[in-house]
Design brief:
- The chain has 106 residues and is mainly alpha-helical.
- It has a domain at 2-60.
- The protein has 6 helices and no strands.
- It has helices spanning 2-6, 22-39, 44-48, 56-60, 62-73, 75-100.
- The chain is elongated.
- Residues 16-105 form the Ion transport domain.
- Pfam families: Ion_trans.
- It is found in: Membrane.
- This is Mitochondrial thiamine pyrophosphate transporter.
Amino acid sequence: MARGLWRAYEDPNSETPFLKDGWCCLDGFVVVAGCLSVFSANTSAVKLLRVLRPLRSIKRFSGMRVLVGTVLASLPLLANVLLLLFWLMSVFSIFMVIAFQGTLRG
């Protein structure tokens, strides 16, 4: 990461600077969060950031990068599916409350 931060100021030999690449920014964030969890007191919020460590492997595997990009691109379409699912579950819940009318109470 130190090498990447060194290249952050428009190195003419690099194709893209470190801070302009989204995957490198994510990698830097995970490293900083890991350092915070080591040096900070018993903070559970910082320890929660350890979940992001597997995301560092995405940068190394190009197939995984394509897969994550595809999943992120499909999120707007999945929002419509989740909205439909929420509506169906709401209708089903209302129907079941009316159908049982307290018969499940001991």
